[in-house]
Amino acid sequence: GKMFEDSLHVPLIVRFPDGFRAGEREAGRVSVIDIVPTVLEAAGLEVDARLPGVSLRQSPSPERLIMASRPPSRAYFSGPWKVMTFDQDPAMLFNLDEDPLELDAPKHAGRAESMGLELDAAIRAGWASRPAFDAPAIPAGAYEKQMRAQLEALGYAGD
Predict the structure, then answer these.
(1) Cβ distance 70 to 3 under 8 Å?
(2) Using one digit for the tens of pLDDT, what is the confidence trace for 84-135?
(3) How far apart are CA 159 and CA 147, in angstroms?
(4) pLDDT 10s digits, 35-62
(5) Helix (H) / strand (E) containing 69
(6) Residues 6 or more apart in contact with residue 14 via CB below 8 angstroms
(7) ∠34-73-133 over CA atoms, to 5°?
(8) Using only C-alpha atoms, what is the Rg of the chain?
(9) Cis peptide before 71 (omega within 30 of 0)
(10) For the whole model, what pTM was predicted?
(11) Contact 119, 83 (CB under 8 A)
């Protein structure tokens, strides 16, 4: 279904080993993409700049662009603004500060579609410009052969 706040707003509780930020509540929007950088920094390890997200040992910028995706739905957030797209339906735009229950999409209907397209392009451009991790290529079919061998070894597959 569509990505309304009641299905997206999930608490994330972080307890740093050193008690840092104990009892604080982060007012800004955070994402699961922030978990890996947070864990790396808390462990005293270098956070690779190629990773998406930010460490939650600092407050993330409220203006940063965040995307949530559950195909065919997408939602983009920046500051108080949220653009929600669903399949071929027109994009919906909400100002969550003014309309936290997401009831007033028609108010911004004129801007919603253009902002949805702009944000989609911004996300694609941002990811395209991010340096890629070096990963060995997996030959076609190799993964399936390996998985089948493991399943056969466990007695779940075979002739």
Answers:
(1) yes
(2) 888 878 888 899 999 999 998 788 877 877 777 777 677 667 654 554 445 4
(3) 15
(4) 999 999 999 999 988 888 889 988 888 8
(5) strand 66-70
(6) 21, 38, 56
(7) 40
(8) 20
(9) no
(10) 0.67
(11) yes
